[in-house]
Every structure is written in structure tokens, then in C-alpha cells.
Fold:
Amino acid sequence: MNWLYDAHIHLSDDEFKPDLPLILLTMGRLKIKACCVSMDYSSSGATLALAEKSKLVLPFLGMHPERAGEDPEPIINLITNNSTRVSGIGEIGLDKTYVSDEEGFRKQVSVFEKMLSLAEKIRKPVSVHSRRTLEEIFAILPSYRINGILLHWFAGSKKQLQRSMDIGCYVSYGPAMVYSKDKQVLFSCTMPERLLLETDGPVRFSKCFGQKTAQVTFLPSVLFTASHILGKGYDETLEMLERNANSYLGI
Ligand SMILES: [Zn+2]
Structure:
């Protein structure tokens, strides 16, 4: 039996709090492990505490571009002091929709670069938010030697997907792939060994998911769609994705 990995979910988000015991129990029963990403200092602490409770939670600590106005030093110290317990750094990245001017974007870039330097130093993978900033991110990434770089919720063009493959990134697709033709096409153009799945919970998804909060239990549907696109069996696809997750995580 193989493990199914959710490569990007915010389990330390307050929205999941009342259901956490049930979520962790379900993850155990369904053999799901989750890369649990953080938004800021306080959710990074909550992620670490959650990982103490369950081995199914792989803690990713970091500063989301939405929070890049805050001081990154406390998070850098938290990660450095817990470097052996941390599975990776994230969610980090760039997103102009959260800033109103060039100065705000420069701050995001500076925080992003600090997080990448730290990942390089402690040799951990990163989970990157790249909404409409793939070009800026492509310009920055080659300066760092990081083995596992995930461009989560990949939403670029086919050309940008090719560039991501050329520089050795992993890309992940989520519940939207179940109903979006565009996502299915991108998925089919991705190198199979760089594919990962995610839910990005507690984001809500439309169509067949009826605007419900994304749960790890959405993953088997995403995996079924993935196996259908690849023309492989469910178990064969699961095995491939587990291999990809292990190599992304460096385990
Ligand atoms: Zn996220």
C-alpha cells in the first residue's frame, strides 16, 4: 500500500481546527500524508505543534506573500531552531495582488529571497506561490541551489510549464483538475516524474465540489482524474506520485 501525498494544504488554518481529530484519523485510514504549509509566524508555530501530534503531518514553515509586510526574522529563527523537525519551507512566493505599489513588491521579493537562502542553507524543499508572477520567479530561482522546488497550483502557460521543467521544478494540481479542461491539458504536458497533487485546503472549489472547503478526502478524486489523463491504473499512478513526493521531499 502506497502513501498518497497532499503536497500543499493549510491544516493549521483555523477553519480546520474543530475537525482536526477527524481529519487526522481519516488521513491515517486513507493512508494520506500532508505537506502542511504555513502563512506567517503564528501559523508556523501551529503547524509545528500539529506535526508533534501526528506523523502524517509534514511541517512546512514560512511566510506567505500576503504577509510579506511583516518582519520575517522571527520565522527565520523559528525555522533555524527547528531545522531538524521541519520538512520544508512554505508557503513562500510572490503575488502582486497583495501589494499596492512597487515598494510592497520589493518587500515581497526580499522576503522570498531570504526564505530561499534559508532553504538552501538547511537543505529543505520549498512550496512556492506563483500567481501571475512566474516570470519574476523564474528570474530568481536559478540563483539558489534547492533540490525540491514546488510551484504549487500551477496556473501558467504551456511555455511557462516547459520552463518550470527545464529548471527542475515540481508542479502540483488540485481539485480544479477534476472539472477544468485547461488544467487537464497542463497536467498532460507535465513531465510525469515532476507531478504532485494537492488540495490547498481550506480553499473552496466550485462545480462538482459545490464550494465546499477542500479536504484531504478530495485527493482520491484528483488521483482518479490524474490516472485517467495518464492512461494508467489508479494504483500505478499512486505509486508514481509517492515516488515523486519522496524525491521532492528528499526522503
Ligand atoms: Zn496555499
Notes: The chain has one domain: 4-249. Strands lie at 4-9, 32-36, 57-61, 88-93, 126-129, 149-151, 170-173, 195-197, 204-205, 212-213. The longest strand covers residues 4-9.
